[in-house]
Amino acid sequence: MLDVNTSSRAGVAYAALAYGLWGFLPLYIALTTPTSSVEFIGWRILLSALFCAILLAVMRGWRATGRLFRDRRVVGTLALAGTVVAVNWFVYVFAVMSGHTVEASLGYFLNPIVSVVLGLVVLKERLRPLQWAAAGVAVVAVLVLAIGYGSFPWIALVLACSFGFYGLIKKRVGARAGAIPGFFVETTLIAPIGLGCLAWALLAGGGITLGSVSTDHTAALLLAGVVTSLPLLAFAAAAKRLTLVEVGMMQFIAPITQFLIGVFVFGESMPPERWAGFAIVWVALACFAIDLVIAGRRRSAATGAPMPRSPADAPGRPGGRGPAGPA
């Protein structure tokens, strides 16, 4: 059996892989140019379902998956989760393809705070003082960024809110759906959306680009299922080995990487007022991170037990076991 230090090191490696892959996702999306965001989402949904099916066959997970399909409540919940995550995917891909990677990264900086607020509004959870501070500072940041962008940062807020609601919905399923079976059910149930996207691209969007641009482009598109599913597997492995605080801290790898790619690789504009807005967001996240550490230590001191090793037990985190980065 692995000792705690070995398990923790493995957890850090898995988390770094998951959040690193999510962080570099804009570079992968750039490789699929000139594919439209609609066609890309179509392939992403269908190929994710196919990749999960292959994994289930290898892992002999069809029996557990069949139980999920026979539970109407689970099917309805995962269908809703899949629809919400499809919206999240589309907005994210649209943002990257239209030169708004920095604003997309803002959405995932804000996501932990949005999740806390959803816990207050939807689950009637009580917020601790630092959580209130983080939420209040985040509101100020959004106002400053609205002025800086000259318009409401809808991309960031749609991404943050959709992923927050995705976490809420997934929490209703809980441990009944494992990472791969649950994601397979989600993507299978929204397969009609994927087919609809491809039909639109074929009939009204200028045609299907898969196989018509170059070998490299075709290979990049065909990897959509792997690129989508692999971070989810790595995150699931990390969550079993790391404490809540460790996972909570490492989740910022993804938006930081996306932010740096947007600014220094894609050359997106960052006037002073945007820097000011992001600085305020980072202050809010500092409040969130400090609260996370304090809450974890208090829990350990009160119970004599180690801090939870899964986001499922997080106070104020409605996301449950759902992925903690760009889906």
UniProtKB/TrEMBL annotation:
SUPFAM superfamilies per UniProt: Multidrug resistance efflux transporter EmrE
Region (Disordered): 302-327
Presence of the UniProt keyword GTP-binding in the record: no
Keyword entries, A-Z: Cell membrane, Membrane, Transmembrane, Transmembrane helix, Transport
Pfam families referenced in this protein's UniProt entry, alphabetically: EamA
Gly residues compositional bias, start-end: 317-327
Residue ranges of the TM segments: 12-31, 43-62, 74-94, 106-123, 130-147, 153-169, 189-213, 219-239, 251-269, 275-294
Entry GO CC: plasma membrane
UniProt keyword RNA-binding, yes or no: no
Membrane topology recorded in Swiss-Prot or TrEMBL: Multi-pass membrane protein
Residues covered by the EamA domain: 11-145
Subcellular localization: Cell membrane
PANTHER family for the chain: ACYL-MALONYL CONDENSING ENZYME-RELATED (PTHR22911), SOLUTE CARRIER FAMILY 35 MEMBER G2-RELATED (PTHR22911:SF137)
Family stated for the protein in its record: Belongs to the EamA transporter family.
Protein's recorded name: EamA family transporter RarD
Source organism of this protein record: Pseudoclavibacter endophyticus
Upper lineage: Bacteria, Bacillati, Actinomycetota, Actinomycetes, Micrococcales
